Amino acid sequence: MVENNEIERICFNCNYFFPSSGQDFNEFGICLNDNEFEPYLDELLENSNYDCCSDLINRKKFSGEQEVCPNFDEMDFEETIEIDDESELGRKLISCLESGQFSYESLKELIIEERIRNIDLKTLPVEQYVKRLYSHNLADQMSAIRSLGGLISFENKAAFEELFKYLKQLPSPKTIQDVHIRIEVLRHLNSFDNKNFLTQHLIDELYNTPSNNTTRQWISAIFSFIQQSPLEDIREPLEKMLKDKRFSHRLKQKIKDILYGINED
Does 5 reside within a domain? Predict the structure, then answer.
């Protein structure tokens, strides 16, 4: 516990700072708020797998002694942390003591690593990703979609709701790029367990999306999703679609394949 209530504003004392190595204790680390590390967060946090992005770590690592950036998220060192001898933190702490390398700085680094390891991705706030989701820059949008998708895989409900909201406000696709964005969003939304209302939205999409060469991939993606849904959730709306003259013979055949060609063991 620090004796002074004022925490020094250096990167060591930021929640985003993460050690650049799982073995060597030194002043170097990486910033988990850096967009380039987003695809590797689960491996770094869940599995302490540094090999998944070792080249990136070597390129981006920096000294934790440097002054913080505007995104500084202060570490609360007064919070109590229970140390189990059998935990990873406990084993590393014992190793430091036995090797004579124990110091306040090494303890602080171990605590930072433990805090980051215990981040609850299921409840992690998503505001920073949502802001980029509505950026006019396509690269920022795709980065946000991947980040929210990663959190959805950890059952982050807020991430699912925001990405679903984004999908619903998208205009009808007019270009292949529009189609690919929608398919990428759906791919991530599909990893969430509770998605009944997503099924209804996609059925509505079939009514509102013109069938042409541009939208063919999007319509196929919708049918692939619907085909995975419980038959009791889709039977009534799909049977209604079979009676609608707006749908072509080809699309109606897809509907029949889903209604009468699945879930028959």
Answer: no
3-state secondary structure (DSSP) of residue 109: helix
- Confidence (pLDDT) at 86: 56
Determine contact, residues 58/4, Cβ cutoff 8 Å: no
Structural domain boundaries enclosing 26: 11-117
Do 137 and 229 have their domain in common? yes
Residues 195 and 143 in one domain: yes
Average pLDDT per 10 consecutive residues for the chain, totaling 265 residues: 58 82 70 86 76 90 87 63 54 63 59 61 84 90 89 89 95 93 93 79 90 91 88 88 85 88 49
Q: Residue 38's Cα: distance from chain center in Å?
A: 8
For residue 192, give Cα distances in angstroms to 28, 103, 185, 189, 207: 36, 44, 12, 6, 24
pTM above 0.85, yes or no: no
Q: Are residues 83 and 207 in the same domain?
A: no
Whether 135 and 186 share a structural domain: yes
Domain termination residue (choose one: 96, 117, 138): 117
Cβ-proximal residues to 70 (8 Å cutoff; 6+ apart), any chain = none
Q: How far is 257 from 255, CA to CA, in rounded Å?
A: 5
> Do 231 and 134 fall within a single domain?
yes
* C-alpha–C-alpha distance, residues 41 and 48, integer Å: 10
Task: Give residue 97's identity as a one-letter amino acid code.
Answer: L
Query: Which residue type is seen at 108?
Result: K
Q: Which two tokens stand for residue 139?
A: 């690269």
Sequence-distant (6+) residues with CB within 8 A of 110 are 25, 89, 92, 93, 96
The pLDDT of residue 79: 47
Residues 93 and 201 in one domain: no
How far apart (Å, rounded) are the C-alpha atoms in residues 151 and 200?
23
Phi, psi of 18 (to 5 degrees): -135, 130
User: Domains in the chain: how many in total?
Assistant: 2
